[in-house]
Amino acid sequence: MGNKGEFRGVFARELKMLLDVKHSCGIKYTDEERMMYKFDELSLAFDCTDGLTKELVLKFIEPRPNWSQSTYEKHINLILQIVRFLNLHGIQAYIPDTKLKLETDRSFSPYIFSIDEIKRIFEVADHLYSGRSNIRSADFYPVLFRFLYSSGLRISEALFLTMKDVDMVNGTVFIKNGKNHKDRLLPVNPQMIPYLENYADKYHKSFRDDDYFFSPPQGGHYDKGTVYHRFRDILFKCGISHGGRKKGGPRLHDVRHTFCVYSLRQFLASGVNYRTALPILSVYMGHSSIAATGKYLRLTAEAYPEISSKMEKDFGGMIPEWKVSLR
For the whole model, what pTM was predicted? Predict the structure, then answer.
């Protein structure tokens, strides 16, 4: 694969132009850019003298064994953007069937952590680096996992926060161009503020606005993969069984699922109607639609039987059927 910023295939000029257009509009395009390099590398094996061929398009979107429906749709969406851009510049390009659906194993279900499990995760995180020289990591993981649990942020959203995005005076964080290209200004749980303040006081005595809030000693931001591995270590030390990918988890993203279920339960238990609760939670979470948030109704009902009957009465048959792992 070529270096970042360097495409080598027959569509190198157009890919670079498309990427520049997205960046000029303020769109991070991080996942898409990574896939664009894969597409560029793949194109080297095809004869595209007369344009973007059906063979190349279908090969690029051909599902891999580890792909989810979301990953498949991202490839479809990207290739459609490339096709439109090529057509705009007078280059013929094959248009794939956008109604294709990936046949995936739907046995995977979100894992909702119990309060006890969350407490154990925090306790293990607090001592994960005890006696080691990596002092910053010893502070980073306890703050990060508490932050994810109290905010419901995606891990990428938390890791990409800059100093100017975290307003501890007003108790807010600003998520710029998150998933689905949405900006969100979110309140921070008041109990979380002291953790963030102590972390900032210790590691950001002087800083620039664009410095990452969670920054390792070498600069930049922490890697998602590293955080995932540490989370697996913590689960092991907690005695929480990990079934692996698509086998019951739990995954780091399940902390976000847990936040959503607990938040919806709090809404409903306090008497807020679901028609009011869902739009609020949907905007907060940065979901693509209210329907995407609605799946948590069933999870909440199964997690809290005491309000299940009330939910069934209010929601009728509109609650989607989901399997859920509860502990």
Answer: 0.63
